[in-house]
Backbone:
């Protein structure tokens, strides 16, 4: 399935789940806004369905109930339609047509975000430019998609490896501690669309900014009082922000779905305060607020403690300005607490996991150091892919927007009062951001990672607060209004160009789930393999091996990730990686092998082992290929532990930078010679004898090694993709039966 077709399917899937429910949770007079709220409601509703049917309800995975679960959004859509009179029903039907500018913006943004992924040439699969989180999301998706709630077989129930605090199984870990909503929604979509758990994480993450865009329009219109054009422009710019693109291409979906939740919560909570206790009761906004809190608890449950910080600042400002303290304390605060309570009752397991999550924060320094962003960076003037300072032109434009805001506010008390609510909303976020950056500077830990996460979740509030001249109802000269539109369009272009700059890095992404990783599923079908030691050095590969082998008990040599603690490597079988394979008679010792990975029976080791000696450059990889270049004088090693002279043959998959003859020399004797072309070729040596012990197998060529392209100081002899040693006999001229 192509990236674009799968993305369209995901888009429609989320809207189908959210359309009817969005009508029901919105205040009745605002039902026509359902196209803007449907993505938030769709994600929240899927979270509840998977939690109650797949976890509490003890059903099989979503593969067993996903199609049946579609009755839930269908029934809600029917109820929403029948609950409206003919006039209101027609307004609901016309709503998508009225929202066409939003859909156009979503389509353009989807193309920008998906084009680099499609440009990799890789099939629909997990791709990351650095973070390994995609593998963890893949494992969680598979647990919810394929396994029954009570299933504790294999890795899922291995308490020694999985346990964290009181949690002793992998499924409960994912429901209580990890980012549940992305895995739950990917599982449902995967079951309906036929996509596997390794095909959905990157696709899903790339579509989240697209799905977030509509609710950011609501936030701009409701809380920041932007014009329609201004709200759409700021929403598009924020959704296209390189700060979010950084999360997209590192496959970090939870922070974006949390941003969607916080934005919709801010919109609903601000409107509830305005409604007060009169005829426009705040209770009309309870459905939206509870829905947003459900999505937040499912995505970043620990953020529920600070989720209301922006809107609380907004409410405090308005309460101080209008002297509405009674309304705030007597109506809004109890309403807010009631909404949080209801959301907690709907997802009790997520609430219970908050404390465990903070214990993990205290124990581990999560993440990595991320470049600090200033005001121009918040507006999109950063460089890809490391979020460093943007170019001179980009920064000058961003400073121009900030200068326009300063000119707009300075010396105009009325405008300052009118715009202070936006600054009050962004203030708590920026204070928290500054504190985390101070901690990062003082302690030199990864607090800058936490600061980035905080900024990413609350980015819609920060960006909107810096652009007060987009508010509606301003009495500005015609030229100023034109310049405001130009500024909004320029802001969108600035962010789109910064996000497009990620494309070269994405097309050369070092972390891809390739055919060799997918082949590991074959091991799950081996009935005599019940446990595996994962001796894979590469972190990405080790995590994905864990996801593909969930039905087997797994042992890790080092702490690999949450729920993957180091344990004794006492399994009979060992899974390792490399370009070299060694196989004994009738496959002795080699229980399974693919193009890159091998499963070895430690009870029956292969008698003759092939290894890398001197003269080899480091391993390289691109998408589905891994290789290693040999330099002048390169050597392979052969270790014969049989105690007898053994006859072997070796299969090679290699090529040269220029056509050459290649020979193998063992103990001064040439044992093989063959021509190697510039195209990949599979060659096989004849059978030759190897005495007991360790020996050097030298690679020789009459043609000198080829100098690498300019800028690369290496001289290259041949490129090795794979070598497979077969043990033919354990004594000269005696072939084993």
Residues:
């Amino acid at each position: 399935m192509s990236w674009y077709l799968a993305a369209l399917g995901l888009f429609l899937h989320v809207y189908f789940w959210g359309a009817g429910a969005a009508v029901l949770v919105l205040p009745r007079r605002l039902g026509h806004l359902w196209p803007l709220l449907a993505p938030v409601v769709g994600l929240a509703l899927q979270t509840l369905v998977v939690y109650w049917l797949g976890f509490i309800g003890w059903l099989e995975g979503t593969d067993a109930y996903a199609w049946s679960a579609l009755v839930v959004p269908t029934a809600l859509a029917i109820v929403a339609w029948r609950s409206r009179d003919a006039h209101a029903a027609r307004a609901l039907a016309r709503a998508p047509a009225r929202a066409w500018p939003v859909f156009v913006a979503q389509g353009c943004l989807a193309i920008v975000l998906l084009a680099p992924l499609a440009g990799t040439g890789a099939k629909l699969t997990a791709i990351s430019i650095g973070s390994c989180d995609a593998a963890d999301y893949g494992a969680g998706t598979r647990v919810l998609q394929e396994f029954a709630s009570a299933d504790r077989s294999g890795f899922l129930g291995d308490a020694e490896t999985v346990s964290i605090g009181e949690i002793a199984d992998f499924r409960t870990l994912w429901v209580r501690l990890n980012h549940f909503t992305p895995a739950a929604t990917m599982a449902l979509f995967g079951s309906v669309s036929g996509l596997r758990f390794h095909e959905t994480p990157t696709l899903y993450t790339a579509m989240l900014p697209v799905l977030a865009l509509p609710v950011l329009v609501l936030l701009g219109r409701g809380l920041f009082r932007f014009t329609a054009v201004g709200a759409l422009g700021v929403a598009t710019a924020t959704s296209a922000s390189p700060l979010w693109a950084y999360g997209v291409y590192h496959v970090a979906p939870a922070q974006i779905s949390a941003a969607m939740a916080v934005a919709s919560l801010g919109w609903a909570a601000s409107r509830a305060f305005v409604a007060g206790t009169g005829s426009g009761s705040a209770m009309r906004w309870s459905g939206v607020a509870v829905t947003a809190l459900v999505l937040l608890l499912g995505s970043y449950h620990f953020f529920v403690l600070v989720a209301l910080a922006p809107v609380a600042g907004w409410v405090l400002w308005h309460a101080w300005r209008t002297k509405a303290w009674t309304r705030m304390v007597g109506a809004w605060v109890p309403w807010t607490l009631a909404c949080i309570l209801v959301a907690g009752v709907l997802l009790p397991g997520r609430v219970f996991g908050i404390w465990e999550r903070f214990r993990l924060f205290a124990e581990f320094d999560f993440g990595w150091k991320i470049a600090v962003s200033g005001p121009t960076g918040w507006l999109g003037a950063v460089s890809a892919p490391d979020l460093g300072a943007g170019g001179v032109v980009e920064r000058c434009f961003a400073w121009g927007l900030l200068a326009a805001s300063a000119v707009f506010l300075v010396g105009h008390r009325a405008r300052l009062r009118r715009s202070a609510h936006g600054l009050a909303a962004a203030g708590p976020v920026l204070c928290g951001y500054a504190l985390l950056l101070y901690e990062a500077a003082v302690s030199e830990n990864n607090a800058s990672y936490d600061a980035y996460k905080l900024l990413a979740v609350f980015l819609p509030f920060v960006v909107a607060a810096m652009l007060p001249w987009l508010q509606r109802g301003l009495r500005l000269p015609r030229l100023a209004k034109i310049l405001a539109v130009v500024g909004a369009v320029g802001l969108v272009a600035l962010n789109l160009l910064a996000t497009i700059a990620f494309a070269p890095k994405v097309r050369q992404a070092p972390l891809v789930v390739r055919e060799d990783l997918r082949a590991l599923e074959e091991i799950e079908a081996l009935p005599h393999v019940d446990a595996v030691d994962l001796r894979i050095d590469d972190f990405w590969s080790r995590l994905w091996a864990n996801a593909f082998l969930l039905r087997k008990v797994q042992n890790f040599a080092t702490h690999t990730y949450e729920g993957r603690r180091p344990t004794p490597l006492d399994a009979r079988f060992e899974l390792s990686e490399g370009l070299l394979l060694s196989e004994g008679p009738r496959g002795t010792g080699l229980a399974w092998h693919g193009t890159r990975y091998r499963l070895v029976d430690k009870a029956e080791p292969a008698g003759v082992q092939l290894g890398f000696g001197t003269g080899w450059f480091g391993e390289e990889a691109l998408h589905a290929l891994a290789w290693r270049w040999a330099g002048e004088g390169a050597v392979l090693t052969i270790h014969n532990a049989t105690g007898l002279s053994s006859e072997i043959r070796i299969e090679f998959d290699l090529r040269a930078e220029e056509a050459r003859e290649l020979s193998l020399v063992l103990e001064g004797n040439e044992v093989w010679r063959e021509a190697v072309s510039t195209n990949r070729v599979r060659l096989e040596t004849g059978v030759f004898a190897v005495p007991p012990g360790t020996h050097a197998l030298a690679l020789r060529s009459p043609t000198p090694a080829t100098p690498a392209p300019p800028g690369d100081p290496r001289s290259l002899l041949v490129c090795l993709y794979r070598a497979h040693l077969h043990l033919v006999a354990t004594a000269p001229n005696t072939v084993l039966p």
About this structure: Residues 733-737 have pLDDT under 50 and may be disordered. Residues 357 and 363 are 10 Å apart (CA to CA). The longest strand covers residues 718-731. The two ends are 47 Å apart (CA to CA).
